[in-house]
Design a protein that fits this description.
Elements (H helix, E strand, L loop, with lengths): L1 H7 L11 H6 L1 H21 L6 H11 L4 H29 L3 H18 L2 H15 L6 H22 L7 H29 L6 H31 L8 H32 L7 H27 L10 H15 L4 H21 L2
Helix pairs in contact: 3-4, 3-8, 4-7, 4-8, 5-6, 5-7, 5-8, 6-7, 9-10, 9-11, 9-12, 10-11, 11-14, 12-13, 12-14, 13-14
């Protein structure tokens, strides 16, 4: 039973217990249900219309559903163009030499070329191949070709429609909230590092430092995907009524700041990995001072996340007095050092912390 429960449990659950609303809100569940509806309705309508292929409509609907409306609309439009190109080549060849392996070869290769020209990507190319082979099958005639092409149009229309409901909220809101979530994750990571530096008197365990670096890399990769989604939404705002251009532009700028912060956090984690593998550990007093700087920097990150949630176009304008006090203490400890290696590492970490505050403050 535990395996069955795990299968039906959404990735993100609102509370301790799984509720119906949690399941409905789960993106995978919504995608499964809506894709099923799109394919079924496309087949039902297509099968009951005289000049439309229900099977073609159903398959096109299933392979064309995307996580966002603007992605699905763009992909469906480009896929229709690709189907026209691939079907024209395959149909012409089949009329000359009959439907055989050579026609299938030409159809598949043409689809990949068309997908490359239309920038559909690998997933889009495979979907295009499936659709074209379905459209241009054996014993194809001009009449059946027309029916199957209308099936493609019907299926693409259903896919575009249901894609609007796959994810809750607007694309820019989803990107913003995902970026804010990663900002809080970075803040938590810096607080963990600060706590470890204080409790261990500057001695950094190599395994722990490695985990910090892996966590920072994971956050950076997540932000890359979020940025891609935000930029896709910005491109879609040119024609989608569901996407506000100015709001999405502000979200993209906010995600870019988050990306720059994550890149700097990666540098801090790399410095700590170098420190953990070196015989020159950070002196206890310097480690405590740097911990104060990192803890204050974590607060700056979380404060900016709070501000962005209210208005993504805003930056911090308050005086960073607490952060400046911690910076002054760290500089004082750096000036008392004679050992070059801890001086370089400590100075590098301090500079990275300064860079984060510069990124996130006005």
């Amino acid at each position: 039973m535990s395996r069955v429960k795990e299968f039906f449990t959404p990735r993100n659950v609102a509370g301790k217990n799984v509720t119906i609303s949690d399941i409905i809100a789960a993106p995978y569940f919504r995608l499964a249900v809506l894709t099923t509806i799109a394919g079924t309705m496309a087949y039902f309508i297509g099968a009951n219309l005289p000049n439309v292929s229900g099977i073609t409509a159903a398959i096109t609907a299933v392979v064309s559903v995307r996580h966002t409306f603007h992605d699905s609309a763009q992909q469906s439009f480009l896929q229709i163009i690709g189907v026209i190109i691939g079907s024209t080549v395959a149909f012409g060849a089949s009329q000359l030499i009959g439907f055989n392996s050579i026609v299938v070869f030409l159809a598949i290769f043409t689809c990949f070329v068309a997908a490359r020209l239309l920038k559909l990507g690998e997933e889009g190319a495979i979907a295009l191949v499936v659709t074209v082979i379905l459209v241009v099958g054996p014993n194809i005639t001009a009449s059946s070709l027309e029916q199957r092409f209308f099936g493609v149009l019907l299926g693409a229309a259903f896919a575009t429609f249901v894609s609007y409901f796959v994810r809750k909220g607007s694309p820019q809101d989803r990107a913003l909230m995902a970026g804010i979530e990663q900002s809080y994750a970075m803040s938590a990571l810096l607080n963990s590092i600060a706590k470890a530096l204080t409790e261990n008197d500057g001695i950094v365990d190599p395994k722990v430092a490695g985990k910090w670096l892996v966590r920072a890399e994971f956050i950076a990769n997540e932000i890359d995907d979020i940025k891609s989604n935000a930029q896709s939404a910005l491109a879609g705002s040119a024609w989608s009524p569901a996407i506000d251009y100015e709001e999405t532009k502000a979200v993209v700028a906010q995600i870019q700041m988050t990306e720059a912060t994550a890149s700097t956090l990666l540098n801090i984690c790399r410095e700590l990995v170098l420190t953990s593998g070196s015989s020159h550990q950070l002196p206890a007093l310097l480690a405590t001072a740097l911990a104060g700087v990192l803890s204050a920097t974590a607060e700056v990150i979380s404060d900016q996340a709070d501000i962005a949630e209210e208005n993504p176009s805003d930056l911090q304008r308050e005086d960073l007095d607490q952060w400046q006090d911690q910076r002054t203490k760290a500089i004082a400890q750096l000036r008392n050092l004679d050992d070059t290696q801890p001086l370089l590492i400590g100075g590098s970490i301090l500079r990275d912390a300064e860079k984060i505050t510069e990124i996130l403050s006005d």
